[in-house]
């Protein structure tokens, strides 16, 4: 099994097709479907990619109840940054990745269960 499984992994890809391919590559290295998350700027796109790739969306399990409820009142950018932070990234990293999402890119994030 690849050493990639021992640490968090994030990849910025151009589109949903590349996201699906990346999810398949991560599964081949030993990650389980429930350890792989996809995130796009548009919620519908996130749902479609997650379903196609058999990956997860960042939800209440990762964010916690407070942040999940708070996201109902946040701008989409604030919500995306909160979701990224909930997976263990810093605010600065979340800001960088959120800008990539603004450009239409997709994030594929894999992590070991805490």
UniProtKB/TrEMBL annotation:
Family annotation (Pfam families): YflT (PF11181)
Residue ranges occupied by any General stress protein 17M-like domain in the UniProt entry: 10-104
Superkingdom assignment: Bacteria
Protein name as it appears in the record: General stress protein
Organism expressing this protein natively: Paenibacillus segetis
Annotated gene: yflT
